[in-house]
Amino acid sequence: MAVTAKQAASPDEPYAVLDDTGQLLAGAKEPAIPAEDLKRLYRGLLLVRIMDDRMLRLQRQGRLGFYMTSTGEEATHFGGAYPLTADDWVFPSYREPGAAFWRGYTLKEFICQLFGNSEDLVKGRQMPVHHACRRINYVSISSPVGTQIPQAVGAGWAAKISKKSDVALVYFGEGATSTGQFHVGMNFAGVYKAPTIFFCRNNGWAISTSRDRQTAAKTFAAKAIGYGMPGIRVDGNDLLAIINVMTTAVQRARDGEGPTMIEAVTYRRGGHSSSDDPSVYRDPNEPKKWEPRDPITRFKGYLEAKGLWTEAWDQQQREEINSDITEALRAAEAAPPPEASTLFDDVFVDLPWHLREQKQLLLDEIAAAGGVRKLSAH
Amino acid sequence: MPVMNIIQAVNDALRIEMRRDARVVVLGEDVGKFGGVFRATSGLFEEFGPDRVIDTPLAEAGIIGSAVGMALYGLRPVPEIQFADFIYPAYDQIVNELAKFRYRSGGQYPAPVVIRTPYGGGIRGGHYHSQSPEAYFVHTPGLKVVIPSNPYDAKGLLLSAMRGEDPVIFMEPKRVYRAARGEVPEGDYTVPLGQAKVVREGSSITVLAYGAMLHTVVEAVGKAAEQGIDAEVIDLRTLLPLDIETVLASVRKTGRVCIVHEAPRTCGYGAELAALIAEKALTHLEAPIERVAGFDTPFPYTLENEYLPSPERVVASMRRAVEFQ
Question: What ipTM goes with this model?
Answer without folding.
Answer: 0.96
